[in-house]
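pipeline stage [seq->struct] | target=Trypsin-like peptidase domain-containing protein | organism=Roseibacillus ishigakijimensis | residues=500
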Amino acid sequence: MLTRLFLSGLLACLPLSAQLAPPPEVVEKPAPSPKATQSHLFDSVLRIEVATQNPDYRTPWNTGGFSGGNGTGFLIGPNQILTNAHVVSNARRILVTQRNSARKLPAVIQHIAHDCDLALISLEDPTPLAGLAPLPIGGMPALDSEVRAIGYPVGGDRLSVTRGIVSRIDFRPYSHSRADSHLIIQVDAAINPGNSGGPAVQDDKVIGVAFQGLTQADNTGYIIPTPVIRRFLKDIEDGQYDKYVDLGVSTFPLFNPAMRQALGLPDNDRGVLVTSVIPEGPCDGQLQENDILLAIDGNAIDSAGNINVAGEQLVLHEIVERKFAKDEVTLDFLREGEERQATITLAPLPGSPLFSIIYDERPEYIFYGGLVIQPLSLNVMSAHRLTDVTTRHLTERYLREGLFKEKPEILVLTRVESDELTVHMTSFAGSIIDSINGEKVRDLRHAHELLYENEQPEFTVFEFEDRGRPLVLPSARVPAVNQRLMGTNNIPATHYLGED
């Protein structure tokens, strides 16, 4: 499992050498000191200290617990400090410390991209950064080349430098969001918490940002490479982050000879099967299930979903992720034996908290007569350990079948607080709400309208997905139960529906 572990190492100390003065008759300009060059580079690497408040999705009315940690960032422009999104997620206070300084300088987040684990922060007062040189961003390192990871890992307060070898360049999951995969650089270097967000440097240029490690392997760390960094910086040029685009299709490899024969395909190791097309996604209306994708932008797709560009093997989605919203790609595909071509205008997929972790947001909820209702998300599933078949099935269908069009949010009854009114109702905890008083529920605001804004019938009736029996509450008793249980459980309000 990928974890938030960060590259680190021993502080690189360059010995001072006594230099002989030249003979009086010789006048030479001394060569630039290597140590001075390194000093400028090191000075632009900053320690980031963060106080966080982590939301409590189990008791969503609570403010959540406070904790803290530290990471690394580095200067890339005037008062522009690049770091990891996970370093500053859920932050309530960010303090930046310069090398060889004890001053803690307040900072704020300018842009944050959870899908690629990058963030740009700035100091409230940029004066202390005057005179520091931004680190230049370079290109992709070669396999088996040496890189240095610079940062402030645990184990000390001073700057640390680790040297490692680029052992792999791959397309792998990013652990921060739990939903996104991008290009990564793997290095064989010691890893420790705290170095996250620090630069990986080669020839005094940044070739990546240290961001995660691999628990199953020793001395293995991962770096976000410059194509991902440059895309993030390009995306925020208009003042906002628009997220990655996607084709909105699922594919299946076609290297099984029997399957290729069944589909009438030649044995040429080409093409992948389209297994689903997300409704309202970029390919909706252009591709269909059982189409065979053959090429993207003229690059042939092999039976494993890979393409070859300039001698390098890439995953199909690497072509897409380098583009932006409203960019186009051309797809060649086979449908019922006929070769076709379509031009696809790319866009982000419909956002859904079912597939990626939510950060920097307060949990939403409704409290009604001892019942706690929350929108389903990865955070909620983790907090309440929701692993039943119905929940998993709905999650799988949510995008594939376009359930989000009718149900922007899936609501779940996460808790049943103990009270005489809720006796024998605890078995309903974890159930997916289908309707309230006979009306299909679209989202949490709609549920609040049905429960608190509309005139209530004598009984409030909840019906659930895949349950044959309803949950029934006498509506007239709910206000008294609310008052009693909210006082007992320190619940400040009957609901929080998010910021307007």
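stage status: PASS
auto-comment: The CA atoms of residues 16 and 35 lie 8 Å apart. DSSP finds nine helices and 29 strands in the chain.
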